[in-house]
């Protein structure tokens, strides 16, 4: 097996965050695709809380639309570095509250 040293970029946003009437998570994935990133995946959280300690849940009696979305992108460090200004611009323009993390990973290739 061949492993490549890479990075995992994680972007946590709310599912209601939008820019130009489009969900922000869709825009982030579209921008990643346009820039030739290896791949991106979006996850919808079932239960969370953040800095304000407000609990967001998917229980049937709770209001929908406040759940977290997590966008994950695995790519070599250089491409992650090139993509970060795009992420920053989209987050700033949308006014979204977000958490962005990076960690080292090893990506398996065939």
UniProtKB/TrEMBL annotation:
- Matching SUPFAM superfamilies: GlnB-like (SSF54913)
InterPro entries (UniProt xref)? N-reg_PII-like_a/b, N-reg_PII/ATP_PRibTrfase_C, UPF0166
What is stated as this protein's family in its record?
Answer: Belongs to the UPF0166 family.
- Protein's UniProt name: DUF190 domain-containing protein
């Amino acid at each position: 097996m061949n492993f490549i040293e890479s990075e995992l970029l994680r972007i946590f946003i709310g599912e209601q965050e939008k820019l130009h009437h489009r969900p922000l998570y869709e825009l982030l994935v579209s921008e990643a695709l346009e820039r030739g990133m290896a791949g991106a995946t979006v996850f919808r959280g079932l239960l969370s809380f953040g800095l304000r300690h407000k609990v967001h849940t998917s229980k049937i009696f709770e209001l929908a639309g406040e759940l977290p979305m997590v966008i994950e992108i695995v790519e070599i460090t250089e491409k992650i570095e090139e993509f970060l200004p795009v992420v920053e611009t989209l987050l700033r323009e949308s006014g979204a509250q977000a958490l962005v993390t990076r960690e080292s990973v090893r990506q398996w290739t065939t």
